[in-house]
Design brief:
By secondary structure, the protein is mainly α. It has one domain. The chain has 5 helices and no strands. The longest helix is centred in the last third of the chain and has 42 residues. The chain is elongated. It starts with 23 loop residues before the first helix and ends in a 10-residue tail after the last helix. The N terminus is likely disordered. Pfam families: RsiG. This is RsiG-like domain-containing protein.
Length: 162
């Protein structure tokens, strides 16, 4: 079983990275890697949320979902916003394994198995949420460092155009 990267050791979110020591092009590249990783993590989270929605809706429908139940379970986010994060992830990007992913996607035979699957999904979602939070913290720090540099020397911002 593999797990989601640990923010304490993953170089993409390693808080030990000294952002002030990075050259400007390295800082921009680092920030881009963080943004790409956040998009992937958001995609993984949506997969977990979708499975949770399907299991919850399936429980009320006796385990078998028709088109109407699928539309209700997966149609929108509940806030009226569409799930556009899924559109930015390219299909050729491999997804890393999540804890017990095969078990999470197994079809539960009864309420006890549904409950167990929902518990595993909640654990996977919590892991991904923590990792995503660490990514946002690093993105905020990298962005703040870029802004500080641009304020100190505004001509650096022009190098983006070069």
């Amino acid at each position: 079983m593999t797990t989601t990267p640990d923010p304490a050791v993953d170089p993409a979110v390693d808080p030990a990275v000294d952002l002030t020591a990075l050259a400007l092009h390295e800082l921009r590249a680092y920030r881009s890697r963080l943004q790409a990783e956040e998009e992937r993590v958001s995609y993984w989270r949506r997969l977990v949320h979708a499975r949770t929605d399907l299991l919850g809706t399936g429980r009320g429908a006796g385990g078998s979902l028709g088109l109407e139940q699928l539309v209700r379970a997966l149609g929108d986010t509940g806030s009226g916003a569409t799930r556009s994060a899924l559109l930015r992830v390219r299909a050729q990007e491999p997804l890393p394994d999540l804890p017990d992913l095969a078990e999470v996607w197994a079809v539960p035979a009864g309420d006890a198995e549904v409950d167990a699957a929902l518990a595993r999904l909640a654990e996977a979602e919590a892991t991904l949420t923590g990792y995503r939070r660490a990514l946002f913290d690093r993105l905020d720090a990298a962005t703040a460092e870029l802004v500080d540099r641009y304020r100190a020397e505004p001509t650096l911002a022009l190098s983006v155009l070069a």
